[in-house]
Write a sequence for this structure.
């Protein structure tokens, strides 16, 4: 997810999806075609939400105000995108704002984004037409849709960039905001290593560049190994900058994570980068993931560019 100031911070922990509550959660899910909305809605169903996909905008009030005792307390997830009949980003923003003003509803908009290359690849593999490019190149439809959906992107409470995310990663990110099990839990932290030569992780909230540490790549015996191997770790620890770096980053995370949690942030991604993403970043990510765990936060560890 590309880091912004608005997404995620406005979110509170998800309420119990099955418990009766005075405030009913309504989650709108929209975004770019091919960015994973179908998968997201399946996950929301797993979290206990009543799910409506491709639901006409004009029927939303009747759906939410249904007084059937068997449904009025169940949280709702509504998927709307360019396939939806009468779809209008501006009208959807107005509808969300109007519902959000009600005291009996907890209304949020989740927007799924993705880079052009990944969307193009997904449509090419499935051989399905893009909804805005039935008679024109897929790239034209992608560009048109990105521009058209800008009002929704700006209004979104949560933006998830699915570029490079597995279906499990997507479920974890959604679950940190909407799963009943997320209630009362601390911020969920992901620590990931990466190589700058392969580009910055789009979902990073903070990037630490460790390329100033001595590089095991230039040692013939260490080059085939990774930051998970003891000889490489011993080599990195000999750098005079290792201890100060480790000490300062640990102190920084110890300060920031509780503050982010107070602000309502549900998850936080720390990206640690070196040149190739195999040695220095891998070892430092391993260390900092363990440190975060000792602080009492749920943490997952990913090595993006490790073979």
């Amino acid at each position: 997810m590309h880091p912004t100031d608005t997404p995620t911070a406005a979110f509170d922990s998800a309420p119990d999806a099955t418990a009766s509550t005075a405030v009913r959660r309504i989650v709108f899910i929209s975004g770019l075609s091919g960015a994973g909305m179908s998968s997201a809605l399946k996950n929301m169903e797993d979290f206990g939400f009543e799910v409506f996909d491709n639901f006409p905008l004009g029927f939303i009030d009747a759906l939410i105000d249904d007084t059937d005792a068997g449904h009025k307390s169940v949280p709702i997830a509504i998927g709307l995108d360019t396939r939806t009949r009468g779809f209008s980003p501006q009208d959807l923003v107005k509808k969300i704002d109007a519902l959000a003003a009600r005291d009996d509803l907890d209304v949020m908009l989740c927007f799924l984004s993705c880079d052009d290359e990944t969307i193009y690849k997904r449509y090419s593999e499935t051989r399905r037409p893009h909804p805005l490019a039935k008679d024109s190149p897929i790239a034209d439809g992608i560009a048109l849709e990105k521009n058209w959906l800008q009002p929704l992107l700006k209004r979104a409470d949560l933006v998830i960039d699915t570029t490079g995310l597995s279906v499990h990663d997507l479920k974890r990110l959604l679950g940190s905001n909407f799963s009943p099990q997320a209630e009362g839990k601390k911020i969920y932290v992901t620590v990931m290593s990466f190589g700058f030569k392969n580009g910055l992780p789009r979902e990073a909230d903070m990037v630490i560049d460790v390329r100033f540490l001595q590089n095991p790549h230039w040692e013939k015996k260490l080059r085939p190994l990774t930051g998970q191997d003891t000889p490489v770790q011993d080599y990195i620890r000999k750098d005079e900058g290792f201890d100060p770096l480790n000490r300062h980053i640990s102190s920084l995370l110890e300060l920031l994570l509780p503050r982010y949690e107070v602000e309502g942030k549900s998850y936080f991604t720390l990206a640690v980068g070196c040149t190739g993403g195999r040695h220095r970043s891998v070892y430092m990510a391993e260390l900092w993931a363990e440190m975060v765990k000792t602080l009492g936060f749920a943490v997952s560890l990913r090595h993006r560019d490790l073979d």
Q: What stands out?
A: Strands lie at 24-31, 50-53, 76-79, 105-113, 158-161, 188-195, 206-209, 267-274, 298-303.
